[in-house]
């Protein structure tokens, strides 16, 4: 007999899952030091991003693990299960949105050689904001511009990573 997809895992299964994620975060955090946190002349080394990611995964998962291990008080009423989230979306709408994003991401990756990383990122964020999240076009455009600026700031300036400019960037001399 199968369990309906709308039911979530119980507190014990969730605790096990968050425990595994906390251990994974600890492992990533611990091994990141082998790559070097800082490089030559105090520049960011290849181990900094895994260190931060591992630490975040460890802390967030450990926090969720503690919440799951805490026994609910008898005075707390159970949460109603209406199937609608805080934004008024049903389970079917959330699943449709998820699959739309899963479908759009590979398209954006395939566009990188043509448009370049930042343009593909901007297009991806715009499509997700405008069509998946149904934001007004001007708001979606603003979110995309901020994402592109943040991507350029983090990767192009702070980390000094050469970003792919794509065929369009090559034609324009970027």
UniProtKB/TrEMBL annotation:
<keyword id="KW-1133">Transmembrane helix</keyword>
<feature type="transmembrane region" description="Helical">
    <location>
        <begin position="47"/>
        <end position="67"/>
    </location>
</feature>
<feature type="transmembrane region" description="Helical">
    <location>
        <begin position="15"/>
        <end position="35"/>
    </location>
</feature>
<dbReference type="InterPro" id="IPR009936">
    <property type="entry name" value="DUF1468"/>
</dbReference>
<keyword id="KW-0472">Membrane</keyword>
<dbReference type="Pfam" id="PF07331">
    <property type="entry name" value="TctB"/>
</dbReference>
<feature type="transmembrane region" description="Helical">
    <location>
        <begin position="99"/>
        <end position="132"/>
    </location>
</feature>
<feature type="domain" description="DUF1468">
    <location>
        <begin position="16"/>
        <end position="164"/>
    </location>
</feature>
<keyword id="KW-0812">Transmembrane</keyword>
<feature type="transmembrane region" description="Helical">
    <location>
        <begin position="138"/>
        <end position="155"/>
    </location>
</feature>
<protein>
    <submittedName>
        <fullName>Tripartite tricarboxylate transporter TctB family protein</fullName>
    </submittedName>
</protein>
